[in-house]
Write a structure and sequence with these properties.
Helix content is about 35%, strand content about 15%. It is an alpha/beta fold. It starts with 8 loop residues before the first strand and ends with a helix.
Length: about 300
């Protein structure tokens, strides 16, 4: 019987998002693809250090300890632009860190995002801008892993803790565009006028709903996964957010309406294994305290200019 990836939380992660391959990427950028492949083959047995996405992946996989093999809730897939010949260094590291990752795809430089739907992917983590943009444009929650301080790569506990920004992440960017175009006062008026109209779903809404389905399986005990909304909104614009989540029938374990104040200290206190935001102003600070990833809203044409 074929293994079914449906009804699971499926996370695809690039090798550079999971492990620290910045030295290797520098070889690629400076000397080209052939030298990069040569370097990987020569260093096949050299251990790899943890990357920004490692902490999240490690704790997500721990959720499966609560279920039988047939009922596993989380599936992680390596989706890499490496070729199969250089993949052994990555798979060696997976084995060394005892990560339960069995499935992988190696595209030899081709766009990895075209395979996301084939693998039923709910979340894609990559260090490549264009792959992230392509994934988002195809309706898949995706984010660019950002280089983080080495100290944030080790898990603080077994519970997965994921923090989301609101507008342009969990929710559509429509309200954020009002703010950018017309300013704060217009944004507040717009949100008050539409407080009873649920916000449209953003690219990460489906991921949140999938997480919520896992949480429902732990009604009588502590869930192995916890979520937080960390948004620059404040009263009175928070009302529309709360009503939207109620309409979706989804719970956020912790919510912080910061009114434009810095997010990074809240994120550190929450102990996020990953923080998803679309604004550099918040991410520039968060990377020093928690693993962070950018949700890129940009067309490929804009990116290539």
């Amino acid at each position: 019987m074929a293994y079914n990836l449906k009804n699971k939380l499926v996370v695809a992660v690039s090798s550079r998002a999971l492990f620290d391959l910045e030295t290797e990427n520098k070889v690629f950028e400076e000397k080209g693809l052939d030298e990069y492949y040569k370097y990987q083959l020569q260093n096949e047995n050299e251990p790899l250090q943890k990357g920004t996405g490692y902490r999240l992946i490690e704790n997500l996989l721990k959720i499966n300890q609560h279920f039988s093999e047939e009922e596993k809730q989380v599936e992680v897939i390596i989706l890499s632009k490496n070729n199969a010949g250089t993949s052994l260094r990555i798979t060696n590291a997976i084995h060394e860190y005892k990560l339960d990752i069995l499935r992988s795809a190696w595209t030899s430089g081709s766009d990895t995002s075209s395979y996301l739907k084939a693998f039923k992917v709910d979340l894609f983590l990559s260090a490549d801008d264009s792959d992230v943009i392509n994934a988002i444009q195809n309706g898949v929650a995706a984010a660019k892993i950002l280089p983080s301080h080495q100290d944030v790569h080790n898990s603080l506990g077994d519970q997965v803790r994921i923090a989301f920004d609101g507008d342009a992440v969990l929710f559509s960017e429509a309200s954020e565009l009002v703010y950018k175009r017309d300013g704060l006062d217009a944004f507040i008026k717009h949100e008050q006028k539409n407080k009873d109209n649920p916000l449209k779903k953003g690219v990460f809404a489906k991921l949140l709903l999938t997480i919520a389905n896992i949480q429902k399986k732990f009604k009588d005990k502590e869930s192995p996964i916890r979520t937080a909304l960390v948004t620059a909104r404040s009263a009175p614009t928070h009302e529309r957010v709360i009503k939207t989540l109620n309409v979706w029938g989804v719970r956020i374990d912790e919510a912080f309406f910061l009114g434009g104040s810095e997010k990074y200290e809240v994120l550190e206190a929450f102990g996020a294994d990953m923080f998803f935001d679309d604004q550099d102003t918040h991410l520039d600070l968060s990377v020093s305290v928690v693993p962070s990833a950018k949700v890129i809203h940009k067309s490929i044409e804009e990116f290539q200019k």
